[in-house]
Every structure is written in C-alpha cells, then in structure tokens.
Model the fold of this input.
Amino acid sequence: MSIGGGRTKAHDELSAKALSWVKGRLTRRGGRGGFEFPAPGVGGYIADAACIGSFQWRHFKRYVFGWGMAATSWEAKRAGRVEAPNYFCMVFEAKASRSDFQATFGGRNPAHVNRLSAVGHLHWVVADKGVCEAVEVPEPWGLLVRSGGGLTEVKPPTYCGMGEDEVDRFAHRLLWLKPRGTWSHHETVDEEMRLPGL
Done:
C-alpha cells in the first residue's frame, strides 16, 4: 500500500523496526531518533531513519574491536590506536523491495550516488528477507534483515570517522525532527508504527 512519495507501509515499518532494534542496544543514557532525516554533508540526502546514542558495553565492544579500535583511552595509548567515541551517529535506509534496493544501490541512478558518501558513524540497509544479499550491500553499509518480529544483523557496517563539527550538525538536525506522532508525508502515524520512546 503506497502512502505517498514512493513510500509504502512496509517501507515505514522497516524504518520503525530499525529504530526499535537500535534502541535495544543503547545505554540508559538513551538516544534520539527520527524518520525522514535530512542528512548533513556533501553527500546529504533524506535518510529513512537516523539515531544518535551510545551502545551498551557488549555491543560497543563487539563493533569497536571488530573495527580494530580501542575502547578506552588507556587502551588507545597503550596500543597506539584511535579511541572509539562513546556515542554513534547512525543512519538507516529501508528497502521493502528488490527494485527499491537496486534503484538506490544498483549504480544505475546517478541521483542516488550520494548514498555511498558517509554522513554518520554507522549506516545500515534495512530490508525484508530476499530483497538483497550481504555481498550486494556497498561499503560502508551494513545489512539488517527482517526476522520474525525483529531484525537480524547479517552484515555489520564499517565505521566512518566524523569530526566534532559533523557530529554537531548531525545532532542538531536530529534534534528538530519529531520522534513520534507526525511525519511530513502523512498526517498521523498508526499506533503500531509509532517510535518506541526514543
């Protein structure tokens, strides 16, 4: 069912599931998330969802060590590595169909080349099963696939460094998004689609 702007209810459900998925991995400090995020930077575009927050230790450590970074200042000094930030700017692109995925990441539409430019620390494609394979998802994007009532991470994203000014721009834009209730493309959001308290 189309709800305008080339979007479907399935597409918006994937966006909402992405923010629910990341919420379950954040610390008690919480985070801020929203839909239809005007991503800052040269490669700017309207991302389906975005969030800023700090991961619980088990998730933080899994990603940070996988990227070859140090989790603490003393580890960074001892190993001569870059210390990971204690918060991450995250971007999500929902893909409810194969044609939608190929239009954005298939390289045929020059209007979507900006999706290959990093605008956050972490980027995920969020898709229904069978829409795409992990090998088709370009760097730095990870892949989350709908599984039962939630999402499964099939491919972790590649970490992208951001300067403080870039993080500030990301956070400022996110601050002004409504996290629940209304989206620009639709009057109101069905109760089951509302963001779970980010």
